[in-house]
Design goal:
Number of strands: 7
Radius of gyration: 19 Å
Strand order of the largest sheet: 1-5-4
Largest sheet: 3 strands, antiparallel
Number of helices: 4
Structural class: alpha+beta
Distance between the termini: 28 Å
Shape: globular
Length: 156
Protein backbone atom coordinates (compact mmCIF):
# COMPACT_ATOMS: atom_id res chain seq x y z
CA UNK A 1 0.00 0.00 0.00
CA UNK A 2 1.26 3.49 -0.85
CA UNK A 3 2.00 5.57 2.25
CA UNK A 4 -0.98 7.64 3.32
CA UNK A 5 -1.14 11.42 3.43
CA UNK A 6 -2.18 12.48 6.94
CA UNK A 7 -5.57 14.15 7.38
CA UNK A 8 -5.24 17.84 6.57
CA UNK A 9 -1.88 17.31 4.86
CA UNK A 10 -1.17 18.86 1.49
CA UNK A 11 1.18 17.52 -1.15
CA UNK A 12 3.68 20.31 -1.84
CA UNK A 13 5.85 18.42 -4.35
CA UNK A 14 6.41 15.00 -5.86
CA UNK A 15 9.69 13.43 -6.88
CA UNK A 16 10.27 10.24 -8.84
CA UNK A 17 13.40 8.46 -9.98
CA UNK A 18 14.45 5.16 -11.53
CA UNK A 19 17.90 3.60 -11.45
CA UNK A 20 19.27 0.77 -13.58
CA UNK A 21 20.60 -1.65 -10.96
CA UNK A 22 23.41 -3.06 -13.12
CA UNK A 23 24.72 0.40 -14.03
CA UNK A 24 24.57 1.49 -10.39
CA UNK A 25 26.37 -1.68 -9.26
CA UNK A 26 29.07 -1.09 -11.91
CA UNK A 27 29.52 2.51 -10.72
CA UNK A 28 29.90 1.33 -7.11
CA UNK A 29 32.48 -1.27 -8.21
CA UNK A 30 34.36 1.15 -10.46
CA UNK A 31 34.47 3.91 -7.79
CA UNK A 32 34.76 2.32 -4.32
CA UNK A 33 34.35 5.67 -2.55
CA UNK A 34 30.99 6.34 -4.26
CA UNK A 35 29.04 4.31 -1.69
CA UNK A 36 30.55 6.31 1.16
CA UNK A 37 29.78 9.60 -0.65
CA UNK A 38 26.12 8.68 -1.22
CA UNK A 39 25.17 6.73 1.90
CA UNK A 40 25.54 6.88 5.66
CA UNK A 41 27.23 3.74 7.00
CA UNK A 42 23.98 2.39 8.50
CA UNK A 43 22.21 2.74 5.13
CA UNK A 44 24.68 0.32 3.56
CA UNK A 45 23.73 -2.56 5.83
CA UNK A 46 20.40 -4.26 6.47
CA UNK A 47 18.67 -4.42 9.84
CA UNK A 48 20.36 -7.78 10.36
CA UNK A 49 23.80 -6.22 9.77
CA UNK A 50 24.41 -7.77 6.34
CA UNK A 51 25.69 -5.58 3.49
CA UNK A 52 22.87 -4.36 1.25
CA UNK A 53 22.88 -5.67 -2.28
CA UNK A 54 23.07 -3.48 -5.37
CA UNK A 55 19.28 -3.46 -5.92
CA UNK A 56 18.59 -2.26 -2.39
CA UNK A 57 21.27 0.45 -2.60
CA UNK A 58 20.02 1.54 -6.03
CA UNK A 59 16.50 1.88 -4.59
CA UNK A 60 17.81 4.02 -1.73
CA UNK A 61 19.72 6.17 -4.18
CA UNK A 62 16.52 6.57 -6.23
CA UNK A 63 14.85 7.94 -3.07
CA UNK A 64 17.64 10.51 -2.64
CA UNK A 65 17.35 11.57 -6.28
CA UNK A 66 13.56 11.82 -5.98
CA UNK A 67 13.96 14.01 -2.88
CA UNK A 68 16.35 16.28 -4.79
CA UNK A 69 13.79 16.57 -7.59
CA UNK A 70 10.96 17.33 -5.17
CA UNK A 71 13.12 20.11 -3.70
CA UNK A 72 14.00 21.55 -7.11
CA UNK A 73 17.58 20.21 -6.95
CA UNK A 74 18.93 22.57 -4.29
CA UNK A 75 22.58 23.57 -4.53
CA UNK A 76 24.77 22.30 -1.72
CA UNK A 77 22.58 19.28 -0.94
CA UNK A 78 24.56 16.70 1.03
CA UNK A 79 23.50 13.12 0.23
CA UNK A 80 24.19 12.17 3.86
CA UNK A 81 21.45 14.57 5.00
CA UNK A 82 18.83 12.42 3.29
CA UNK A 83 18.56 8.93 4.79
CA UNK A 84 16.31 5.97 4.14
CA UNK A 85 15.75 4.12 7.40
CA UNK A 86 13.92 0.83 7.72
CA UNK A 87 11.38 0.68 10.52
CA UNK A 88 10.60 -2.47 12.46
CA UNK A 89 8.45 -4.50 10.12
CA UNK A 90 10.40 -3.36 7.04
CA UNK A 91 8.70 -0.08 6.11
CA UNK A 92 11.19 2.44 4.70
CA UNK A 93 10.94 6.01 5.99
CA UNK A 94 12.83 9.15 5.11
CA UNK A 95 14.90 11.09 7.63
CA UNK A 96 16.26 14.48 6.62
CA UNK A 97 18.70 16.77 8.38
CA UNK A 98 20.82 19.89 7.82
CA UNK A 99 21.00 20.81 4.09
CA UNK A 100 17.95 18.80 3.07
CA UNK A 101 15.87 19.85 6.08
CA UNK A 102 16.78 23.51 5.44
CA UNK A 103 15.83 23.29 1.75
CA UNK A 104 12.56 21.55 2.67
CA UNK A 105 11.63 24.15 5.27
CA UNK A 106 12.35 26.95 2.77
CA UNK A 107 9.62 25.62 0.45
CA UNK A 108 7.12 24.66 3.15
CA UNK A 109 7.76 20.92 3.37
CA UNK A 110 7.01 19.54 6.82
CA UNK A 111 6.96 15.77 6.26
CA UNK A 112 7.71 13.08 3.69
CA UNK A 113 6.23 9.81 2.42
CA UNK A 114 8.23 7.39 0.27
CA UNK A 115 7.59 4.28 -1.75
CA UNK A 116 10.48 2.24 -3.14
CA UNK A 117 10.74 -0.91 -5.20
CA UNK A 118 13.20 -2.91 -7.26
CA UNK A 119 12.47 -5.61 -9.80
CA UNK A 120 13.71 -6.79 -13.20
CA UNK A 121 16.90 -4.75 -12.94
CA UNK A 122 15.22 -1.43 -12.16
CA UNK A 123 15.00 0.38 -8.81
CA UNK A 124 12.30 3.03 -8.47
CA UNK A 125 11.23 5.56 -5.87
CA UNK A 126 8.35 7.98 -5.43
CA UNK A 127 8.55 10.74 -2.83
CA UNK A 128 5.68 12.88 -1.60
CA UNK A 129 6.72 16.14 0.05
CA UNK A 130 3.97 17.23 2.44
CA UNK A 131 3.15 20.68 3.78
CA UNK A 132 1.99 21.27 7.33
CA UNK A 133 -1.42 19.90 8.24
CA UNK A 134 -4.19 22.43 7.66
CA UNK A 135 -7.17 22.76 9.97
CA UNK A 136 -10.39 21.11 8.82
CA UNK A 137 -12.96 23.33 7.14
CA UNK A 138 -14.91 25.31 9.72
CA UNK A 139 -12.24 24.95 12.40
CA UNK A 140 -11.85 28.13 14.44
CA UNK A 141 -8.98 30.05 12.89
CA UNK A 142 -10.01 33.70 13.19
CA UNK A 143 -7.99 36.24 15.11
CA UNK A 144 -10.16 35.81 18.20
CA UNK A 145 -10.25 31.99 17.93
CA UNK A 146 -13.93 31.90 16.97
CA UNK A 147 -13.40 30.88 13.38
CA UNK A 148 -15.07 34.05 12.24
CA UNK A 149 -13.61 37.01 10.54
CA UNK A 150 -15.95 39.66 9.20
CA UNK A 151 -18.90 37.42 10.02
CA UNK A 152 -17.84 34.38 7.95
CA UNK A 153 -16.34 31.03 8.87
CA UNK A 154 -12.79 30.83 7.55
CA UNK A 155 -11.93 27.67 5.63
CA UNK A 156 -8.58 26.57 4.27
Amino acid sequence: MFPQVPAGGAVVAVGIDVVAVDRFAAALERTPSLGRRLFNPDEMVSATGHPRGPASLAARFAVKEAVAKALGVPSGMDWHDCRVVTQTGGRPVLQVSRTVADAAAAVGIADWRISISHDAGIAAAVVLALGPARPAAGTPTGPDGTGRENGTVMTP
